[in-house]
Amino acid sequence: MMHALSRRITDVLALQPDTRALEYEGRWHTWAQLRTLAATIGDAVGQHHAGGPPQIGILLRNRPAHVAALLGVLATGATVVVINPSRGDARTRADITALGLPVLIGAPEDLDAHVDPGTDGTRVEIHTVDTTPRVVRTGDIPGPGSRPGVAVRMLTSGTTGPPKRVDLTYDMLARSVIGPSPDDAAAPTAPRSGVAIVNSPLVHIGGVYRILLCIAEARPFVLLERFELTRWAEAVRTHRPRAASLVPAALRMVLHSDLRREDLAGLRVVTSGTAPLSADDAEAFTAKFGIPVLTSYAATEFGGGVAGWTLADHRRYWEAKRGSVGRANPGAQLRVVADGGDTLGPDEPGLLEVKPAQLGPDAQWIRTTDLARIDADGFLWILGRADQAIIRGGFKVMPDDVRAALESHPAVRGAAVVGRPDDRLGEIPAAMVELRAHVDTGELIDFLRDRLSGYEIPTEIAVVEAIPRTPSGKADLQAVRRHFSGRAERVG
Known about the structure:
29% of the residues lie in helices and 26% in strands.
C-alpha cells in the first residue's frame, strides 16, 4: 500500500500538469516537467526494489532536477540518503564509499568528483528538468539493506561534531507537512495561487521540509540555490508571499541591508529557526520593516519543529516573553528535567525533553542536550547547549550569551564563540567575529564589559571575512576551533 506522503506527491504532480510549479533563475517549470523527470527517476529506482525499498543516494543541490529526483525516489517508497556535495571532495568520496549504495543520483560533475571510477552500482546523471537522465550501470552491488518506512536519512548540521545521519520516517514527514492524520487528510484539488520562496538547502531538514510542504499544499515556489540577498529580495518583490523563512544569519543580512519597507510590503510574518536569534535583532527587524519575527525550535531528530511563536501569541505576549522561542506546537509536549531525570517546575533551568507530534501518539520522551526553562504559561527559553558550556576556572560561560552580546554591537555582522583549553583555568572563551564596519578588538572588549561578567569576556578575538557555516546557516564550531588552533589575537 502506498504511503500517504508518496500518494500526496503523486497526486499533486498530476493535478494541473501544465501550470507553473517551480521558478529557478527566472524561469518557470511546470508540474508536468517535474512529474516526467520524477517518474523517470522512479523507474530507475524501481529496478532495485526486489529486496525491499532500497537506499538511494542523492548528491543534493538546490536545483529543479534535484527536486524532481527527491520526489521521484519518495514516490516509490524508497529511502533517500542525503549526500552533501559541498562538504569537500575527499570527505564526500569517503562517505559515499562507506555507504555502498546501489544507486547514486546527482549532477555529472558531482558524480565525477565524488565517485571513484569503476565503482560498481548505478549512476543516474541529472541535468535539467527538460533533459532525460543518463543511467550508467557498471555492476550490481547489494547495498546496505532496506530500511522500510524510512523516507530520508538526513545529515545533521555537524556544528559541534561530525555530521551523522538521522532516520526520518514517512510517518514523521507526512505528519509534519500534511497533518496529524495524513491518511485521512483531503488532498488539494488544484494548485494554490500564492508563491512560496525556498532558500533553505536541500541537504538540511529545513530545505526538505519546505519542498515537501509546498508539494503537500500544491503550492508553486521559487527555488534559490542559496540565500543571496538580491535574488531573495527580488523574489519577495515579485511574488509578494505572505510569509518567508530566514535563518538568523540571513535575517541579519536583510536587517542591515538597504532594503526598505516597500521592498517587503507583501510579507506579513517572517519565521526564523535552526540557530539562536536575539530578541534585539527580532525587534530591530520588526521596527525597520513592520514585520513580526516568529522564532521556533526544531531539530533534525524531531523531523521538524516542536515549539514556536504564533502570530496571536506574538501580539499578546512578546513584550513580556521576548527571547523565548514560543510554546509547544499542537500535539508536542515539552518538559525540563534535572540531571537525574526529575521534572522541574516553572522557570527552573535544566535539560529539555521533547515528545514531538511528528512521532505520533506513542512517542517517547527525547532528551536533548539543550539547557532550557519553561515558564508557567508554557513559553520555552533555550539557555544554551549543555555540551557547549565553557567552564572557566569554575565559572560557567554559555557561548550563546557571549555571541549575542557581540552581535548586539552595530559593527558586528556575526559571531561564534568556542572554548579553548587553558592550563590554569581549564577553558577560556574565544570569539570569531565577522564585521560590517571597522572596529578594533579593544573597542569590542570595552563594549562587552557593560554587558557580560568579567569571566564571560573572550580572551581571544579573531576578525575574519566570513565565519565558516554549515548548510543550515549555523556557525561551524569545528572549523572555528580549528582556526583558533592556529593564529588568533589575544586581547586580555
